[in-house]
Design a protein that fits this description.
- One of its GO terms (molecular function) is transmembrane transporter activity.
- It holds the Pfam family Multi_Drug_Res.
- It is a multi-pass membrane protein.
- The relative contact order is 0.17.
- By secondary structure, the protein is an all-alpha fold.
- The longest helix has 24 residues.
- It has one domain.
Length: 106
């Protein structure tokens, strides 16, 4: 169950990172509230995952999911560049996340 919590925490990290773009410096009420709720949910789920997972592994996977998801969201939703080197770097991060999953207890 801890890996599920960590996965949800990563998805919520993507949500709040993307949400920051729409808050316009926290001047828009609804995007700001949703972003803050996603932040709290992400930290809360990470906390649940840390009950059983090693700190270093959980944090690396959490930030990795957030990094990959946010980069992909930027490309898909905001028209950010998706060059071969950038996609290759994202693939390396995904490889690291998968390796940590299979090499870690829990």
């Amino acid at each position: 169950m801890s890996w599920f919590y960590l996965f949800i925490a990563g998805l919520l990290e993507i949500a709040w990172a993307v949400g920051l773009k729409y808050t316009e410096g926290f001047t828009k009420l609804m995007p700001s509230l949703w972003t803050l709720l996603a932040m709290l949910g992400s930290i809360g789920m990470l906390g649940l995952a840390l009950r059983q997972l090693p700190l270093g592994t959980a944090y690396a996977v959490w930030t990795g999911i957030g990094t990959v998801g946010t980069a992909i969201a930027g490309m898909v939703m905001l028209g950010e560049p998706a060059g071969a080197m950038r996609l290759g770097a994202i693939a390396l991060i995904v490889t690291g996340i998968v390796a940590l999953k299979f090499l870690s207890p829990g």
